TrEMBL record:
PANTHER family for this protein: AMINOTRANSFERASE CLASS III, ORNITHINE AMINOTRANSFERASE, MITOCHONDRIAL
InterPro entries given in the database record: Aminotrans_3, Aminotrans_3_PPA_site, Class-III_PLP-dep_AT, Orn_aminotrans, Ornith_aminotrans_bact, PyrdxlP-dep_Trfase, PyrdxlP-dep_Trfase_major, PyrdxlP-dep_Trfase_small
Family to which this protein belongs: Belongs to the class-III pyridoxal-phosphate-dependent aminotransferase family. OAT subfamily.
Entry keywords, A to Z: Amino-acid biosynthesis, Aminotransferase, Cytoplasm, Proline biosynthesis, Pyridoxal phosphate, Transferase
Role played: Catalyzes the interconversion of ornithine to glutamate semialdehyde.
Cross-referenced NCBIfam families: Orn_aminotrans (TIGR01885)
Subcellular location: Cytoplasm
Catalytic activity, reaction form: a 2-oxocarboxylate + L-ornithine = L-glutamate 5-semialdehyde + an L-alpha-amino acid
Organism: Desulfamplus magnetovallimortis
GO cellular component term, pick one: cytoplasm
Database matches in Pfam families: Aminotran_3
Biological process according to GO: L-proline biosynthetic process
Name the UniProt record assigns to this protein: Ornithine aminotransferase
């Protein structure tokens, strides 16, 4: 079938909860993807950082195929031989004390919400049903009902209420606002180290360090949502490392499987996850042997092939070269590692979408967010010559 035929079927039979670019992809390898008509594109979104290791990494694929022939699912009613090894390797890599495996990123966030509330009641002594969690405005932590309840995005919230209470939103990057928002009932502060969906918004230098100090002093659990920023995306294994801190709970997902399978995890100190007792939380698929085997290999190639270091080096180069582009529509170019955004001035004709559509025709796939921001987040295996090729196309798109 041709592109327009696939699009017609999707428009007729699918829910219209996405507005994708009109390209039908059917193959991927490394940083490249191909459509049904044979056209090749540089993927500059990486499935929202789920394929940091590149599309169809052969070693992760091999691990998945090998495990799928032995055992795929046991449920957590029984033990499997892959889960303890994932625990061991994740804890050694991230200095965590406990791991709770889930499937999607949103499930990891929901798990964290439950766990910090439980900690608040059983350890901190917050009165029952009075726990408060502080979040940031313009956050994105997922799409479940609880999560959109503390979103400040009207499009995500409208006509989906009523929502669960217990959340307080403050400005992102404002440590004084965090301090002021804390009450005796505050159990946690949950924040993205860099706000991805908001448009790669980077907080002021030292913000996370101040947040860590404030949370420690006030006996508040610091939860970092590293589902997009983690596993090498910002040029460090975890983005918290830029500020030299450790969160009490860290949420990872997406690239934890290299894009092969939904895998997420809550990484924690003993104090929080150690409170869970049998029957209080779980997931049929969470921690299944196929997911664990895939995640173990995804982490292994990330480290052995020095993708984190490559993200730092190539990200610095890409960002530096992008900043040389001068155009009256460009308001700001910002980023960290291979998590980069070009923000256009509000009112720019066609907005970011028109630039993304131009780049698609030139062989680059990227995505707009919030009307006037273009995100660039290629797989961490990208090389300098690939970036140079992309820069030529990006400059051309703006010159037109």
């Amino acid at each position: 079938m041709k592109t327009n035929e696939y699009i017609d079927i999707e428009n007729r039979l699918g829910a219209h909860n996405y507005k994708p670019l009109d390209v039908i992809l059917n193959r991927g390898e490394g940083i490249w993807v191909w459509d049904v008509e044979g056209n090749r594109y540089l993927d500059c979104l990486s499935a929202y950082s789920a394929v940091n290791q590149g599309h169809c990494h052969p070693k992760i694929r091999e691990a998945m195929m090998e495990q799928s022939q032995r055992m795929t699912l046991t449920s957590r009613a029984f033990r499997n031989d892959q889960l303890p090894l994932l625990y061991q390797e994740l804890c050694a890599l991230t200095r965590s004390h406990k791991v709770l495996p889930m499937n999607s990123g949103a499930e990891a966030v929901e798990t964290a919400i439950k766990c910090v509330r439980k900690w608040g009641y059983e350890t901190k002594g917050v009165p029952e049903n009075k726990a408060e969690i502080i979040v940031c405005k313009n956050n994105f932590h997922g799409r479940t009902l609880a999560i959109i309840g503390f979103s400040t995005d009207d499009n995500a919230r409208k006509n989906f209420g009523p929502f669960a209470p217990g959340f307080k939103a403050i400005p992102f990057g404002d440590a004084d606002a965090l301090e002021a928002a804390i009450t005796p009932n505050t159990v946690a502060f949950m924040v993205e180290p860099i706000q991805g969906e908001a448009g790669v918004i980077i907080p002021p230098a030292g913000y996370l360090k101040k947040a860590r100090e404030i949370c420690t002093r006030n006996n508040v659990v610091l939860v970092l949502d590293e589902i997009q920023t983690g596993l090498g995306r910002t040029g460090k294994l975890l983005a918290e490392e830029h500020d030299g801190i450790e969160a009490d709970l860290t949420l990872i997902g997406k690239a934890l499987s290299g894009g092969f399978y939904p895998v997420s995890a809550v990484l924690s100190n003993e104090a929080v996850l150690g409170l869970l007792q049998p029957g209080q939380h779980g997931s049929t698929f969470g921690g299944n042997p196929l997911a664990c085997a895939v995640a173990r290999q995804a982490l292994k190639v990330l480290i052995e092939e020095k993708m984190v270091e490559n993200s730092a080096n190539m990200g610095a180069y890409f960002l530096g070269e992008l900043k040389k582009i001068e155009h009256p529509a460009i308001k700001e170019i910002r980023g960290r590692g291979l998590m980069i955004a070009i923000e256009l001035f509000e009112g720019t004709e066609g907005g970011a979408r028109s630039v993304c559509e131009k780049l698609m025709k030139m062989g680059i796939l990227c995505k707009e967010t919030h009307t006037y921001t273009i995100r660039f987040a290629p797989p961490l295996v990208i090389k300098k010559e690939d970036i140079d090729w992309a820069l030529d196309k990006i400059k051309k798109a703006f010159s037109e």
